[in-house]
Specification:
303 residues; mainly beta; eight-stranded antiparallel β-sheet; seven-stranded antiparallel β-sheet
Length: 303
């Protein structure tokens, strides 16, 4: 077993997307090789309807997958293929844009004004960029949840974990997408196969993702669950943790516990030509996509 080092921790930054939705971006539109096969991660948790109700009106996607995970409130969506529906709390939509769709995503919030959720973009390899569009809508009740003896719970959204398999399938990047909740003071180790690129995104509580044996950061002595433990560089809400190579990670939950997403996938390792919601391999393919958008041939007829 070799521990994956923490390459970097950084806070998500405020951004405005769609028709004026205020959100926080953990990564995206910088170096696409950094977390290959993943391109972008947006945290759209918000308590103020005026900050999200303008939503994400009609826009195209090609060459990628978008993965929406709702924690509270709801998102209404509809698309150029005639699909429409509502994602509620705990639900996941895995959309393979493939050759192209036009869709809109309208956050609605709940009665107390909360709209909580995340959107991840996964890249598609060249062989699948022009595949037929596909949706996998998963209801919360169909997502396996495992509770360990120490009170740790894991929702398995995609991939295999502790003997359970998430309900989403057939994805090129072989992703694993877990929602993990660890109680105060508990230390856990999670296996992540070496070939995967991995990151964590903390959205509640705090944790240390580095091990005491790693080069020192700031060392803090804290009492957690009656034990004296060394907690280095605690990562809190809206922190992205990027892991290096190895086959496991270790997490020491802080005094309030921690909840985070643990996401990994097989790197695609191909050239990326990216403009807005369209991600191809070459400039020529990108130019063709925008030409098709202008002349109305972007959406392929169903076959
Ligand atoms: Co979209």
């Amino acid at each position: 077993m070799s521990l994956r080092p923490v390459l970097q921790t950084r806070k998500a930054v405020a951004a405005i997307e769609g028709a004026g939705v205020k959100l926080h971006r953990a990564f995206g539109f910088q170096d696409p090789s950094e977390l290959d096969p993943f391109l972008l991660f947006d945290d759209f948790r918000n308590e103020r309807p005026q900050d999200f109700k303008a939503g994400f009106p009609w826009h195209p996607h090609r060459g990628i997958e978008t993965i929406t995970y709702v924690l509270a409130g709801s998102v209404e969506h509809s698309d150029s293929l005639g699909n429409s529906g509502t994602l509620g709390a705990g639900d996941v939509q895995w959309m393979t844009a493939g050759s192209g769709i036009l869709h809109q995503e309208m956050p609605k919030g709940n009665v107390s004004g909360q709209m909580h959720g995340f959107q991840l973009w996964g890249n598609l390899p060249s062989a699948q960029k022009m595949t037929a569009p596909r949706y996998q809508d998963v209801q919360s009740k169909d997502i396996p949840e495992i509770t360990d003896d120490d009170g740790t719970t894991v929702r398995v959204i995609v991939g295999e974990f502790w003997g359970k398999t998430g309900p989403v399938d057939g994805i090129a990047a072989d992703p694993q997408y877990l929602d993990i909740n660890i109680p105060a003071g508990v230390k856990k180790t999670f296996r992540i196969d070496t070939y995967r690129r991995a990151f964590a995104y903390v959205f509640d509580g705090q944790a240390a993702f580095a091990d005491a044996s790693q080069p020192t950061g700031i060392l803090l002595e804290k009492e957690v669950a009656g034990q004296e433990v060394n907690i280095r560089d605690m990562s809190g809400n809206r922190t992205l943790v990027r892991f290096g190579t190895g086959d496991e990670i270790t997490v020491q939950a802080g005094p309030e516990g921690v909840r985070f997403l643990l996401i990994s996938g097989a790197p695609i390792d191909e050239p990326v030509a990216w403009h807005g919601p369209i991600v191809m391999n070459t400039r020529t393919e990108l130019e063709q996509a925008f030409r098709e958008l202008r002349n109305g041939t972007f959406i392929r007829p169903a076959h």
